[in-house]
């Protein structure tokens, strides 16, 4: 039970659970929720426990309710392009199953090899492909959920369109277990996209890279991936694996296009990168090379963790999403925050969406180092809000950012959140304290 | 006030309003809602009054609150591809303003020349382009709403992604004025798409056309438009204008592709139509011809109204959305319903989305004719639900289908709807009776 009491958040507390239920069926979930309701016991729904904000962490006296073992594909409808799954299935496993039928479920969070679809829905997970293909919510047509009192209900619809009633399906997407437990989902799928072309551009500083992103996205062309890595991140990657990236540069952009116009898209990207001061732009249409490059990009978090472990173990991960045009200003602000708080901050970003992930490192055994990191964390959240952004683009609130949610939402919205939470979960047993806990 | 008491629904009752407020500003809306809240008076929010289910109809003793005069474009952000507008702006006017900057707001309900963006959001309006570009909800990033007690709040976010809190923005999209009044919206826009190629295929019966749609969509290719017209609709169009359509056929499909692969898309469509028994397939890359054809398609409702006026004036419009693969079966069921109820039913459909609009004609002065039409209406709704569909793909519930919503939603969902409505609008003054009135 101890092992099931915390997700992958590095800096979130967790409590002492009463019990762990490993549900194998919808009936198990219904029975658990009824019991919890009858005894007014808090329930923490859990999937693959890969969240990084403590959303699935135990709280004192709770029932941990894992749906990880409910991992079947219930139906693939290749004609209507939908798939119906249980919530415990791992994102990458679903992708593999669909690929056999030339179908794809696009959302690809960094955690896709280890995170579950139920967790992806509960956090409205994003990823690298969002810049073209959108986020989890865009693919969820219908869900079955068990409400706090144990009632099983169906929200949304299986059809391409539908406006019958309030959009309660979207309300539950991203609700982080605070309204009920997702036990089944029907997702839209698409035809498997073709292999992309890839361009890699390097820049003297973050500024030129950010300006390139803003200018390229303003053309209206939709890359299938547009990732940013700052110089520190490139260095940490080279330390992690023998990747041989040019770590003398200030920033790097990886751009892909899987459109029929990929060749001209990549050409246009090159022009814009060069206009904005790129040091170098390279291309590849070699699938193996491209996959290796994206795999390298997906090593950023392990590389950051390796660095953290050898520097006192502390890491705070941000998830600021800002308007793309504000990215140069964001990096200016970040430079000041680094200076003022004496912190090392590495930045990777889903740049096409303006979704940045600064990682703040600190020595967990040094209270002053931790305090500096926390100060930087707060200042970055403030900076993001000041630039018209949000405190979380895709990771969610969990327990780590619950206090910050009150800064982003206005009083009317906070009240609405409380009223709706109370209406759906009057006993307050559905993942209490998480996301909405400070509102 | 009488003129402002009913929308374009042909068969919805309306009551006697107390007052009509023509708001010119957010403050006007706030003041009106505060007054209504203090006096527990029902408020019916209104845009351009073009809905067809009575959603904006007066109820006895209500305040009609029109935001039609709030029609400014507040900001166009061409770099970040967003536009911020007041709710009263007409959809087509917004499109025109954006086109000057090579930008587009895709959602294109049949009513786009006359309907307002606020109304489009309140009903989550669809249209012809949805098959590729999605519905209104997919473009709404942030809204400002005035809650039933007069509180102004901001829901959603302006950034490309964001998961801070519950998705209350989506909850208000499609809520038909039952939760509050939308007073501002920030919408995602895209680069103006290129001119499409067009193909027109004719078929001996609806069956071959429906099978073509299902097979073409299963390829994963995304047409930018895929419309179905049955033989009766084609005849009514020819009677309405001198369109010269071949009205000896059983059905017609209009397909467009604006993709870089348009030429091969149209070719593939032709192959599939021929494999499925098309009588004829014609193409066009002539912009004027294509626009004329789509303008003809957009005449379906006026053509139907002309027919209705010369046949007793009655028309019931359905909005069933079903899985595309169920369309052949749907037409079988429809044929039986026609026979059993002795009704004339013309069908147009956004076929790529499985969204069908059967129009049932009747003599409004003949109670038996009306009873037959109502029987057909109910049977078609039943048929849609039986085939895994929804009673409304894009028109909404309003007052006309409120009773039917109880059939589509299960008990858990109905309860959730009631709880959330009561939480947000405890006095029940926001468009009472509409959409949620029978739950």
From TrEMBL, chains A, B:
Q: Where is the FAD-binding PCMH-type domain?
A: 13-192
Q: Which SUPFAM superfamilies match?
A: FAD-binding/transporter-associated domain-like, FAD-linked oxidases, C-terminal domain
Cofactors demanded by this protein: FAD
* Residues making up the signal peptide according to the UniProt record: none
Which residue ranges does UniProt annotate as crossing the membrane?
Answer: none
InterPro entries reported for this sequence: FAD-bd_oxidored_4_C, FAD-bd_PCMH, FAD-bd_PCMH-like_sf, FAD-bd_PCMH_sub2, FAD-linked_Oxase-like_C, FAD-linked_OxidoTrans_Type4, Oxid_FAD_bind_N, Vanillyl_alc_oxidase_C-sub2
Source taxon at top rank = Bacteria
**One matching Pfam family, short form?**
FAD-oxidase_C
Q: Which PROSITE patterns match?
A: FAD_PCMH
Write the record's keywords in alphabetical order, separated by commas. Answer: FAD, Flavoprotein, Oxidoreductase
Write out the GO MF terms.
FAD binding; oxidoreductase activity
**UniProt family annotation:** Belongs to the FAD-binding oxidoreductase/transferase type 4 family.
The name of this protein is FAD-binding protein
- Which organism is this entry from? Corynebacterium anserum
């Amino acid at each position: 039970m101890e092992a099931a009491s915390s997700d992958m958040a590095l800096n979130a507390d967790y409590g002492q659970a009463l019990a762990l239920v490993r549900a194998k069926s919808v009936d198990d979930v219904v029975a658990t929720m009824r019991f919890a309701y009858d005894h007014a016991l808090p329930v923490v729904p859990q999937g693959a426990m890969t969240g990084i904000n403590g959303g699935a962490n135990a709280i004192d006296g709770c029932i941990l309710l894992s749906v990880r073992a409910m991992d079947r594909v219930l139906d693939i409808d290749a004609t209507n392009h939908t798939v119906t799954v249980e919530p415990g299935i791992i994102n990458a496993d679903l992708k593999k199953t669909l690929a056999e039928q030339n179908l794809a479920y696009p959302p690809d969070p960094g955690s896709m090899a280890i995170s579950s679809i139920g967790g992806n829905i509960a956090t409205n997970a994003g990823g690298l492909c969002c810049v073209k293909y959108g986020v989890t919510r865009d693919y969820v047509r219908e869900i079955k959920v068990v409400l706090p009192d144990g009632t099983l209900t169906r929200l949304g619809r299986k059809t391409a369109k539908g406006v019958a009633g309030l959009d309660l399906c979207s309300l539950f997407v991203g609700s982080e277990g605070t309204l009920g437990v997702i036990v089944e989902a029907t997702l839209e799928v698409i035809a498997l996209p073709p292999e992309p072309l890839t361009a890699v551009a390097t820049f003297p500083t973050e500024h030129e890279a950010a300006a390139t992103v803003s200018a390229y996205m303003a053309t209206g062309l939709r890359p299938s991936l547009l990732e940013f890595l700052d110089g520190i991140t490139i260095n940490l990657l080279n330390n992690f694996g023998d990747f041989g990236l040019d770590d003398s540069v200030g920033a790097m952009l990886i751009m892909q296009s899987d459109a029929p116009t990929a060749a001209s898209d990549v050409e246009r990207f090159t022009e814009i990168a060069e206009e904005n001061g790129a040091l170098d732009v390279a291309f590849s249409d070699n699938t193996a090379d491209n996959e290796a490059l994206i795999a390298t990009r997906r090593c950023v978090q392990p590389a950051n963790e390796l660095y953290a472990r050898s520097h006192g173990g502390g890491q705070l991960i941000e998830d600021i999403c800002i308007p793309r045009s504000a990215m140069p200003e964001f990096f200016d602000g970040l430079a000041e925050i680094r200076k003022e708080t004496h912190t090392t901050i590495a930045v990777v970003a889903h740049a096409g969406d303006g979704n940045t992930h600064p990682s703040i490192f600190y020595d967990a055994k040094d209270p002053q180092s931790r305090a500096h990191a926390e100060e930087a964390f707060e200042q970055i959240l403030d900076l993001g809000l000041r630039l018209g952004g949000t405190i979380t683009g895709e990771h969610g609130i969990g327990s780590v950012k619950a206090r910050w949610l009150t800064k982003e939402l206005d009083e009317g919205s906070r009240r609405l959140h409380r009223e709706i939470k109370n209406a759906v979960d009057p006993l307050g047993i559905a993942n209490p304290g998480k996301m909405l806990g400070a509102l």
